[in-house]
Amino acid sequence: MTSKAAISSGWKPASSGRLRQNRAFWLAAMVAVLGVLVAASLLIGTRAVTLADVTGALAGRSETIGEAVVTMRIPRTALALLAGVALGLSGALMQGMTRNPLADPGIFGVNMGASLAVVIGVVWFNIASSNAYIWSAIFGAGVTAVFVYTIGSLGRGGATPLKLTLAGAATSIAFASLVIAVVLPRGDIAGGIRSWQIGGVGGATFERILPVLPFLAVGLVLALVSARKLNAMALGDELAAGLGENVAIGRAVAALSAVLLCGAITAVCGPIGFVGLVVPHVCRLLIGVDHRWLLPFSALSGAALLLASDIVGRVAARPGEVDVGIVTALVGGPFFIWIVRRQKVREL
């Protein structure tokens, strides 16, 4: 059966046997690519290390400078993997529940809403703990998601993709300005917040990563649970309801999952844009529109993209680094323009 989502994405139906073979091939390829990128992330940086240093660090030794360097890169690699999984999944969820090819946590302003909430918490309420950061970011992401969807739903036609995109872009710009306004009087912390606002995984530690794991785990479970409902909603709300799906609950579960994922990871990494936009589109071209496959592939592909971007950022400006948020913006900006031209704004 060919859905509206399949038609709109340009995906052509294939035999079930061929589709299974394609999915198995791309799954194996993605796992292999991830393995190579993880190894590269541990080996490549401002200081070159050897495989012996990597094995020594993984064994718990730090007898050489190389092993000490790898020990610092292990949590950084783990954070890049988690951030890529969270952002790739949240983008696929947002595109699925809104049937909007331009949906992305950054474009919809959700990341910036999370950032604004964290900045307000730091500047006005002096929050300092990891849990306070995470809860503030999730609260900000949730409020922003509701706000953008409400604004995009006003007027004739309800929540159309174009209105949602415009509402999200306007909200993101407004919140970015508010972040500057809140931080401006606090010169003592302005530098750190500006650096965090760029988005990056440098300086990662397991102490920063561990508090966010329960939130990411809940978001991942909710995402996988919502896969079947997203498949039904791709046919249209009326047809999905006719098939016995509760559209409101399905959309709420998917939205909660996306908010948990992007809000929690923004608290740790800062707002990293365009991963959730690029990854689901590429995955649809490779494995089709079935969300039972699309969501796991988006998670793996998001991890691969963020790891690759972090590696590029390390070698592009040696002996310094380019934050991963800048690299993903350089990749995602042209991709965003291509999607708009391909979809034609009047058809959104």
UniProtKB/TrEMBL annotation:
CDD domains associated with the record: TM_ABC_iron-siderophores_like
Stretches that traverse the bilayer: 24-44, 77-94, 106-127, 133-152, 164-184, 209-227, 248-273, 293-312, 324-341
Pfam families on file: FecCD (PF01032)
Keyword terms: Cell membrane, Membrane, Transmembrane, Transmembrane helix, Transport
Localization in the cell: Cell membrane
InterPro entries per UniProt: ABC_BtuC-like (IPR037294), ABC_transptr_permease_BtuC (IPR000522)
Primary localization: membrane
Membrane topology: Multi-pass membrane protein
Gene3D superfamilies assigned to the protein according to its UniProt record, in alphabetical order: ABC transporter involved in vitamin B12 uptake, BtuC
SUPFAM superfamilies cross-referenced by the UniProt entry: ABC transporter involved in vitamin B12 uptake, BtuC
Family to which this protein belongs: Belongs to the binding-protein-dependent transport system permease family. FecCD subfamily.
Protein's UniProt name: Iron complex transport system permease protein
Species for this entry: Martelella mangrovi
